[in-house]
Design a protein that fits this description.
Strand order of the largest sheet of chain C: 1-2
Number of helices of chain C: 14
CATH architecture of the largest domain in chain C: Orthogonal Bundle
Number of helices of chain A: 12
Number of domains of chain C: 2
Chains: A mainly alpha (278), B alpha/beta (500), C mainly alpha (295)
CATH class of the largest domain in chain C: Mainly Alpha
Number of strands of chain C: 2
Radius of gyration of chain C: 24 Å
Order of helices and strands of chain A: HHHHHHHHHHHH
Shape of chain C: flat
Structural class of chain A: mainly alpha
Oligomer: heterotrimer
Strand content of chain C: under 5%
CATH superfamily of the largest domain in chain C: MetI-like
Distance between the termini of chain A: 31 Å
Number of strands of chain A: 0
Chain lengths: 278, 500, 295
């Protein structure tokens, strides 16, 4: 029986791996192969091994493009992501906690606000006007605040969904033990939210790092480009350098992959920890 | 107080305003590239001593050396400064400027390697001729995203000092009277053909300088492929074109390139037909603007839509038309995979060097074999937003663009694709593509007329989508024309035009 | 009796102080709500960059009269419900598979989630090329099943569905992760108790896991539905709403108005979109949360 189980696991594992590879890996393989080709060959867009491996020259071209724009862009994007995600996740956890637990109408109203935040697309021009009147338009801190504001609804929503699964008896027990609100939240509840925090961090990092339109409108100008903008170095109205374009896509995807690789293990840890909670 | 001095000094330097106030003398130390400001009040002629370097530190040397001079020109000042300051140069050399005090203006322009080459050539030439001004080039994506960026920047006063953008009807959409500097009195105006000026004007004011060369809207065709199909001369009527297309199809190529993934390319049959529409209805442009003429029931105007429908019905487009993009179209007509490509002549720069002698350009034929003419597109405009803080430097730049030195630099950067709209313009370089030769011949023949969007502010935003619909058989020509007529009603109302 | 009840209520309120929400509240209200309300004001104006004239509800009338609006609405609904449904079903399926004991779990989890990490533009560009007729490999692979000559993206009837598929490809990893987190939150004791009671795997799933996954399911439904109704980036990157208007959705219609410089009109479109989505989501949300089970 046990060996049957084990073989079954192996079998289904392989099947799943095959299917997943086909569906999820093939497009990336295409990106990688095209990124390794010369410009001429790449424009043929075939799924073939490059006749001439051109990885290093392509890499150099992408980095040099537009005055080494990608280097600055990386710095900007990473800083923006780190700061906005840290602030966002921290504040959203607190906010979601209150929305879920606090009795009364205010919480319900806040809930509605959060929902509308998901639905209503942000109005670009009025926001710019507002930032200008506050005299912070175009500054890096204002961009951070913007990303926090735009990511609020989604993050609060995720947190709330999981805070609602934390039994209230826990609160009562803590109160009985004499904990005040801060201790209750930070010492007792916060550690339980690990898996959600990890999820929220990853998802928001991906969103902020891959955000194209918001930095374009709120923080444009040389020196403050973000990585998504570098794609347009290779895709103009009249010409597309597919090999460089895909190499750029590869390069700007790397930080997210690294981040995910790091946190991936923590997801596992978070899950097993959650599974044992009692 | 110090800041006020700085501002005044900068202003005076830029405007060359030293003849005005004898008490304000600007000395430019070319070697040190530092601007020194020398102020003296009228009362105290010998009191020169508020001399401050623009970076805020006072220079002990100059105060001793200088005297108030009644100076007439900046040149004399500079010369005197250099001469008189040579002694102080030694002393000054020990005082390193914190930063070079040149003016920098910003320029927002198109991205893309060929554009950037042209732009860099211009910046280089301009900076050489104007050592005190530097130009920082910012690029933006082309097409729709770039349009949006331009509009948003203008709306929020965040636009660069100069920028280029479409002329004609699209210019009206960015409300030039409110957002742009009036260039009517700029010195380049005498060098620009009058035919260009309406394209960049609203009311009586001119808002833009010509950027680039004039273009024609017509049809590129592959010469060897035509020969192979037995076609010896370009078609002079639309009927001839259709029979040619059938012959081409029989010889194994796609007669007409469709590149509908870039939906704007599908508009060409409609827009480039305007020479013929005008020939049949000389007052169409005015009537159209006054809501008296419509595409759907004016036969000559409807013809453009019908061309699309006919091409679809006869299967003249390539099978993958809906997924091809503009660069694909240029590549295919160059390689001969498709025989004809309706397009504007700025596409010529995309033709590979090996094929430039094989691709010709013809005007879009109408119904009259004796009256084949070219619909022309004006070049883009170079504009200055009202929000700029460097108006004088920006003005100099714009004047340069429209001068012979500017067009020379443009050609040097590889941008020659047809005649400029300036009178004193650069000669065509040697070895120009066949298509450009054809374009020049057409322009020389005098049988040209501007496209509708340069005569009327009305151009509906959904024309690209609608023409794709007609070209893919989703709607009939008449239905498409009707949809477009409805589309422009919304646009005219948004523009607040009377009579709509 | 009453006094102690009151005390308890007060104590409760003190445990969950409002000031916890203040920083986020300030940022959210200032940088999001205020501009949004301002833009509602602009929807009643004919707004051309600098001047605005009051036109009442003209903009709304104009938007609702748009000949392409009906098509856009239909496309939007198809797109939203298809992507949402597929993400819920596939996400749960993948989640269950990844929680089981098959081999290569960690690797599989990474593979499924990778597409989420790539930017939407990157995904759009990539699949646009993969689906190019005759030369794109996906197109060549799908030729076996007989697809139109113009390719999936180029054919008027299939363009929207091709984008749906890519959207699900990109987003299912997210749904899976949410489900995984949800499943991890189910305390082990529940499984063990069920085992003691002798339930088999399917009953286990249907009566224990599924109900306890409701918060996760609801989150995925709401998020993906709202995202689908508002979807813009991917569609725009892959087809620009075309061919013609065949894959136009509400968001791209509104965007085209913005592009054309009709700012008041596009804002009115945004308001219409907002009201429509609100009318759909609020009742749905209420319905779904009622069925949530508290542990």
């Amino acid at each position: 029986m046990k060996t049957f189980r084990k073989t079954a696991n192996w079998f289904w594992g392989l099947v799943a791996l095959g299917v997943a590879a086909l569906i999820f890996v093939v497009p990336f393989a295409f990106i990688f192969l095209t990124a390794a080709k010369t410009s001429q060959e790449a424009n043929g867009l075939k799924f073939s091994l490059p006749e001439q491996w051109n990885i290093l020259p392509n890499l150099v071209s992408v980095f040099e493009a537009n005055d080494f724009m990608i280097v600055r862009a990386f710095g900007n994007s990473i800083m923006l992501t780190v700061f906005s995600v840290a602030i966002l996740v921290f504040l959203a956890a607190m906010t979601a906690w209150i929305i879920d637990r606090r009795p009364g109408k205010i919480a319900k109203f806040a809930n509605f606000l959060v929902l509308s935040g998901l639905i209503i697309p942000p109005a670009i021009v009025p926001t710019i006007f507002l930032l200008q009147s506050l005299k912070i338009y175009g500054t890096f801190p204002s961009m951070i605040l913007i990303e926090v504001a735009f990511g609020t609804s989604f993050t609060v929503m995720i947190f709330k969904a999981f805070i609602s699964t934390i039994p209230r008896e826990l609160d009562e027990a803590a109160i009985l033990d004499g904990a005040n609100s801060i201790q209750l939240f930070f010492r007792i509840v916060f550690p339980l939210l690990k898996s959600v925090i990890v999820t929220a961090v990853i998802l928001n990092s991906v969103f902020v790092f891959n955000d194209f339109t918001n930095p374009l409108y709120f923080m444009s100008g040389p020196g403050s480009e973000t990585v998504q903008l570098t794609l347009f170095n290779f895709k103009s109205q009249y010409l597309t350098d597919y090999n460089l374009l895909f190499m750029d896509i590869l390069i700007i995807t790397i930080p997210m992959v690294v981040l995910f690789a790091i946190f991936n293990n923590r997801i596992v840890a978070g899950m097993t920890a959650g599974a044992v909670k009692g | 107080m110090h800041a006020a001095f700085q501002k005044l000094a900068l202003k005076a330097f830029i405007y060359g305003d030293c003849g005005n106030s004898a008490n304000t003398i600007l000395l430019q130390n070319c070697y040190e590239n530092t601007l020194f400001v020398h102020f003296a009040t009228t009362n105290v002629e010998s009191n020169l001593e508020t001399i401050q370097r623009l970076d805020g530190q006072s220079s002990p040397c100059i105060g001793k050396k200088e005297e108030v001079m009644r100076i007439k020109t900046l040149k004399r000042v500079a010369l005197a400064a250099v001469a008189g300051a040579s002694a102080s140069a030694v002393a000054l050399s020990g005082i390193a400027p914190a930063q070079a005090a040149t003016t920098t203006i910003t320029w927002l322009s198109d991205n893309g390697p060929s554009n950037i080459a042209i732009e860099n050539a211009l910046v280089k030439a301009f900076e050489k001729a104007n050592p005190g001004i530097k130009v920082a080039l910012h690029t933006r994506p082309g097409g729709a995203d770039g349009d949006n960026l331009v509009k948003t920047k203008l709306a929020t006063n965040a636009m660069e000092d100069v920028f280029n953008y479409n002329s004609g009807a699209l210019l009206a959409a960015i409300n030039p009277a409110k957002t742009l500097v009036d260039q009517s009195k700029f010195s380049y105006q005498k060098n620009v053909y009058d035919s260009f000026k309406p394209a960049v004007s609203v009311g009586k004011k001119i808002f833009g300088a010509p950027w680039g060369t004039a273009m024609g809207g017509g049809i590129y065709y592959n010469i060897p492929v035509f020969k192979k199909a037995g076609i010896t001369a370009t078609p002079k009527t639309w009927a001839e074109l259709i029979s040619d297309a059938k012959a081409l199809k029989a010889s194994g190529v796609d007669p007409i390139c469709g590149t509908f993934a870039d939906s704007w390319t599908a508009q060409l049959f409609v827009l480039a037909d305007f020479y013929n529409v005008h020939a049949a209805n000389p007052s169409f442009a005015a009537d159209y603007t006054n809501n008296k003429a419509k595409y759907s029931y004016n036969p000559a105007a409807l013809a453009g839509f019908q061309h699309l429908e006919e091409a679809y019905k006869l299967g003249l487009y390539n099978a993958d038309a809906t997924t091809l993009t503009f660069p694909d179209g240029v590549a295919r007509v160059s390689s001969g995979k498709c025989a004809m490509y309706p397009m504007l002549t700025f596409a010529t720069s995309g033709i590979p060097a090996a094929n430039t002698s094989e691709v010709g350009f013809m005007a879009q034929p109408g119904s009259d074999a004796k009256n084949v003419g070219l619909t022309t597109w004006m070049p883009s405009g170079m504009y200055i937003p009202k929000s700029t803080k460097n108006l004088a430097a920006a003005t100099k730049f714009v004047n340069f663009i429209a001068s012979k030195a500017g067009t020379d630099a443009y050609v040097k950067g590889g941008g020659y694709q047809g005649p400029f709209v300036t009178k004193d313009q650069s000669a065509a370089p040697t070895g120009i593509p066949q298509a450009t030769k054809d374009l020049s011949a057409l322009v020389k023949s005098g049988k040209t007329y501007p496209a509708l969007e340069f005569l009327s502010a009305i151009k509906g935003p959904n024309l690209p989508g609608i023409t794709v619909q007609v070209a893919t058989g989703q709607v009939t020509a008449k239905a498409g024309a009707t949809l477009y007529d409805q589309d422009v009603v919304a646009q005219a109302q948004q523009l607040g035009l009377k009579g709509w | 009796m009453k006094k102690s009840k009151n005390n308890l209520a007060v104590a409760r309120l003190r445990q969950y102080p409002i000031w916890f929400t203040l920083p986020m509240g300030i940022i959210f209200i200032t940088l999001y709500l205020v501009p949004t309300i301002t833009s509602f004001y602009y929807s009643t104006q004919r707004w051309t960059l600098f001047d605005s004239t009051y036109v009442g509800f003209d903009n709304f009338a104009l938007f609702l009269r748009d000949p392409f609006l009906l098509g856009g609405l239909i496309h939007t609904f198809i797109y939203a419900f298809l992507t949402s449904g597929l993400k819920v079903i596939l996400g749960m399926f993948f989640g269950v598979v990844l929680m089981s004991n098959i081999k290569f779990r960690a690797l599989l989890r990474n593979l499924v989630f990778f597409p989420v990490l790539v930017s939407t533009i990157g995904v759009g560009i990539t699949f646009q090329q993969l689906l190019k007729p005759q030369i794109g490999i996906l197109d060549q692979a799908l030729q076996v099943f007989g697809i139109p000559a113009a390719g999936l993206l180029g054919d008027v009837n299939t363009a929207l569905y091709a984008i749906v598929a890519v959207d699900v490809w990109k987003g299912v990893g997210l749904a899976t992760v949410i489900y995984l987190a949800g499943m991890a939150a189910i305390p082990q004791e529940y499984y063990e108790a069920a085992k003691v009671d002798g339930v088999n795997t399917w009953q286990n799933f249907r009566h224990i896991v599924l109900p306890l996954l409701r918060p996760a399911t609801n989150t995925v439904i709401i998020l993906s539905l709202i995202g689908g109704l508002r979807s813009f980036d991917l569609i725009w990157a892959m087809t620009g709403g075309g061919p013609g208007f065949a894959s136009d959705v509400l968001a791209s219609l509104v965007y085209k108005k913005y592009q054309a410089g009709f700012y008041g009109l596009s804002t009115a479109g945004n308001v219409v979109m907002f009201l429509l989505i609100l009318a759909l989501i609020v009742p749905l949300n209420r319905f779904l949360t009622k069925r949530e089970v508290e542990i």
